[in-house]
Amino acid sequence: MKLIYTLCIRHSDTRRYVQVIEDAAREFQGGPEQALVTIAKSQLALKRGNVDTALALLRHVLYLPCLIDCLCHK
């Protein structure tokens, strides 16, 4: 997930970032990384200036059962 951030969010190519996020969402759905993908989506929303969407996504992370798994595997 750090790779997604490094490759996309630091650069201005948000189209590529969206594609990477969509691919990651499909790949990691239901797994411990799902929370990280959601956080990456919120970073994209912030980059686009959409604070409300970013906050809504972050609120959703709290209810993902995979969040505990993700944090425990770090």
Protein model, in words:
By secondary structure, this protein is mostly helical. It has one domain (2-72). It is 74% helix and 0% strand. The protein contains five helices and no strands. The chain has helices at residues 2-9, 14-28, 34-47, 51-61, 66-72. Helix 2 packs antiparallel against helix 3 (34-47). The protein starts with a helix and ends with a helix. The model has no long low-confidence stretch (mean pLDDT 77).
Summed up, what is this model?
By secondary structure, the protein is mostly helical.
Feature tags:
single chain, 5 helices, flat, mainly alpha, 0% strand, 74% helix, 74 residues
Strand composition percent = under 5%
Could you tell me how far the N terminus lies from the C terminus, measured between alpha carbons in angstroms? Answer: 12 Å
Number of helices: 5
Structural class: mainly alpha
Mean pLDDT: 77
User: What summary fits the major beta sheet?
Assistant: none
Helix content: over 70%
Write the layout of secondary structure elements.
Blueprint: H1 2-9, H2 14-28, H3 34-47, H4 51-61, H5 66-72
Helix pairs in contact: 1-2, 2-3, 3-4
